[in-house]
Amino acid sequence: MIRFQNVTKRFGTFTAIDNLSLDIFEREFFALLGPSGCGKTTMMRMLGGFESPTEGRIELSGKDIVGVPPNKRAVNMMFQSYALFPHLSVWDNIAFGLRRDGRPKADVEARVAEMLKLTRLEKFARRKPHQISGGQRQRVALARSLAKAPKLLLLDEPLGALDKKLRQDTQFELMDIQEKTGTTFVIVTHDQEEAMTVASRVAVMDEGKLIQVATPDRIYESPENVYVADFIGDVNIIEGRATPEAGGEDDTYRIDWAEGETPLQATSATRFDPGQTCYLAIRPEKVTISAERPEGALNAVQGKVLDIAYLGNISTYHVELTSGTVIKAQTANTRRISRRSFTWEDPVWLSWTVTGGVLLAG
Amino acid sequence: MNRLSWFNTVSLTLGFAFLYIPMLILVIYSFNASKLVTVWAGFSTRWYGELLHNEAFLDAAWVTLKVAVFSSSIATVLGTMAAYVLVRGNRFLGRTLFSGMIYAPLVMPEVITGLSLLLLFIGIGLDRGVLTIVLAHTTFSMCYVSVVVSSRLVTFDRSLEEAALDLGCSPAQAFRLVTLPIIAPAVISGWLLAFTLSLDDLVIASFTAGPSSTTLPIKIFSAVRLGVSPEINALSTVMIAIVAVGVIAASLVSKRSLVRQQKDEQEAARAQ
Q1: Which of B13, B34, B53 is the last residue of a domain?
Q2: ipTM score of the complex?
Q3: ABC transmembrane type-1 domain: from which residue to which, for each copy (chain B) (predicted)?
Q4: Which residues of B touch A (CB under 8 A)?
Q5: Are residues B75 and B97 in the same domain?
Q6: Other beta carbons within 10 Å of B129
Q7: Residue B271: what pLDDT?
Q8: Smallest Cβ distance to A133: which of B166, B173, B268?
Q9: Measured between beta carbons, which residues in chain B are less than 8 angstroms from residue A50?
């Protein structure tokens, strides 16, 4: 439905978007994720019509939309600051876009009523934006941008101003509304948890380039490079040299990673040449911590507990290996007031399976 | 309420005495029964009555009012447009120069402004009258309006305009339906400022006024040169009263709306 073709955007000498191509499909909930300054907001502003690309094409439903002003696009945007009109009531804010289309009065009223119902704002229709709470304002902004039933809704850090609890509730509401209305949503966020929760597909961006575009679970479980692995969630990265395992399966590699430590083993779908530098990325929850060396474990290293972070539902152990490397391991606190098995300075074994980690080239 | 220390009381009294004793004397003498300004001969309102029958003063007052209304309205439109372009417009060549130049008349000595306008009007052969005073007043009050409006526009959230465009407004509609209502208080206070500046201007008006179009300040000034009459005291008192009522009303209105907005915001925060 949306197609970026070799889009480049420069501001003076600064390249915000660098020769980027991307397809976004109908009815998708698509997230642009990246640190601030990575170009995600520029992408969104180009879709909204507030910026035009220096080079390349942007198509919406097969038509080139470069040069079409914002008021002529079937695209609506929900602004980070919400941008509610302070001199208009909630009702008039939502009706604003509908009135510009010159729709009959009855139509406008019916549509506004529908939007108020969808966002559960019926009680606040007559209030001014400064007379309602932050969460309500956010819903007004959403209702206003959905009122014209756009083909595409752009959301710029829509939940940034809400506190954590409210944000989580609102995320589910957003997904619900997206499903009900069938609109294509493109959300810009720097919060990886938010992107993972709401989106059906996530694009991780950095310095004006797409690093990886995939579903949330693929982004998390099989990142394509160290940047993505590191940006999304918590991860241990072990640098080493890969050698194809002679006796094992075709895609098993031996990783020599530190003097005096047993080599590790990992599988990889991508090929590594013998002796090639590689990075093994392992999520902390895939690392098992135990007092004895687990029998039959192919990857097991020994160390002592350096730090314990108790987070309620889980605990993260920071374990220092004899080589000095620190590895994080997570265990779920499934039992209430369980006796803590390990404490500071305890010698422990860390182990993970051959498929537990991802082998990356860089 | 804290009580003031003696030092603060003295400073306050001195300051206010300095500011208001001259005006107070003027007001008191306007109720003097005597024809001699400096000799008190009992309370009377006869000068207010005579003022009503003084055609020359009334004509001058009417001219002044007309000039003030027209010049401040034109200055508000032009000043707002200039402020909008300078704050909002895309970067264009010489923008910094232009924004500097719009403030320059603020510090220009009035005599110079008046003289240059006079030369211009003579040069293009425009007869001096109400029209030339309106033009002259528009010229110098426009930059005050533009200063007031641009300081509001600088803090104006641009995404409000973008939201209006996004919802289907043309740029002109976005300005009329969103920007203008929100910056209206600044525009109104710009208008009020231009209006009062025009009301009390003497220097520029005396350069640009013709024989048929004397404004009140010119009239008062020339009358005073022949000797202060109690009538002028009465006229001045009326002007003080009008200005005082205007200022008090404006501050009450703005304070009320501020208090109401704060109350609303507190309630909204509690409801969350």
Answers
A1: B53
A2: 0.81
A3: 61-253
A4: 157, 159-160, 162-170, 173, 177-178, 181-182, 261, 264-265, 267-269, 271-272
A5: yes
A6: 16
A7: 58
A8: B268
A9: 162, 165
